[in-house]
User: Fold this.
Amino acid sequence: MAKLRLDKLKPLVALGIFFVVWWIVPPVVKSFFKVSFTEFQAPAWVVTSYLEDLQGFWARRSHSKIELIEAGRELARKKAYYQYVAQRNESLEAEVDRLEAILNMPGRREFRYEVARVVRRDLSAWWQQIVIRKGRDHNIPEGAAVIFSGGVVGRVVEVNAFTSRIELVTSPNFRMAATFEIDGRPVIYQGVIQRGFGRATGSVNDAPQDIVANSQAPLKLVSTNLGGTFPPGLMIGTVSWLEPGSTGIFQAGDVTLDERLLSLHEVSVLIPLNPIELDTDVP
Amino acid sequence: MFLDPRIIIMFGANALLLYLSLLVNSALSSWSLYLILLGPMLVLPAIFLRHRSYMLCTLFTGLWVDAALPCQFGLLTLGFLTAGAFIFQIRFRFRAEHNYHPIMLSHACNFFCIALITLATAFHQFGVSAFWIQVLVTSLLSHALLTIIAPWFFDLQRLLFELFGLDPEPEDFPIL
Assistant:
């Protein structure tokens, strides 16, 4: 009878021992390893991002003076327009504050905007996340809302020393309270699995029966302050078709999101000036 | 020597491959395309090194990949060690001095990684057809690119062994 060679089983025995050790090791040790390895990798991504910025800088340096003068003129025009819009915004805000005071309405949440460069995009069937170049060094809190010029981007899910990870609005793990621009009643927005080569999409549920959407005049889906994370009125996407949902009571439909969401370069993190304290502010 | 110095080169090459694949993924995001190129990271350590060195190299590679990807921490570490243990067990059957067997193994390991990630992170999406289409597209694209990437990756590792004056052959030659 052939002698059983126990040394041949060494890899499997070592694997078994590692599995047992991994399961009994306290979560704090695993967390330590995760943070250590993540922080160790972060500089490479931050440097890559700065190199991209440098690349952009040199690309712009190659433009002719005429082109730069044209761009400066265009910028001056836009600046003048935005100065006018800012003035009008100030007067409208004052009016809103006055009306809110008359009606004794509760104060709205105020935010500080932290603009950050996108370092990396991880958009796959399994996850829909991006990494930005700011973290605890800029007081980015976990759970903060993230927006861009086209509207809602997502929510901060992980904060590291110099980077933060954001769950995108396209992710099936992302869910938020929303409302149609023409109607104040709340609906639920949720991300869905993205189709390759297609536009970014999401889904809307619990829409009231009397709301009608059509492709000629799609309904705008915007954020509401019900969730507490996002300020109201931020664009999420457009809905061009609604049909009865699985319950038959409410309607559901697809939301067409901004196509720039899949190739973001810069976003803003909304940091609440007066964060909600779970111990004191929640009844 | 207590540990094989080649683990530094293998780990470095694995980190480089991951970094490059994530850079490409970042650039491909606007087309909703993604690449999983994890298979080649497992092959040479399991075929070339003695058990202690292989274990350490694969463990560190797994932790490195786990920290970089947004999946549950430890998933790919355990997956890498499992796949690596099976390759290590039968490594005498493979010709490591040529690329044919390592490439075949890297395809198998890559498929294992894709299946593992799918099972662990998207169990609630199994009923969605769009999810399976995305997984299929990702798998096909990844394996198509792997036919180019894997030989380059193995040759790069062998070249680095030679440049640093290390042994470019496996610890144990296969039984012919």
In short: The mean pLDDT of chain B is 90. The CA atoms of residues 15 and 61 of chain B lie 7 Å apart.
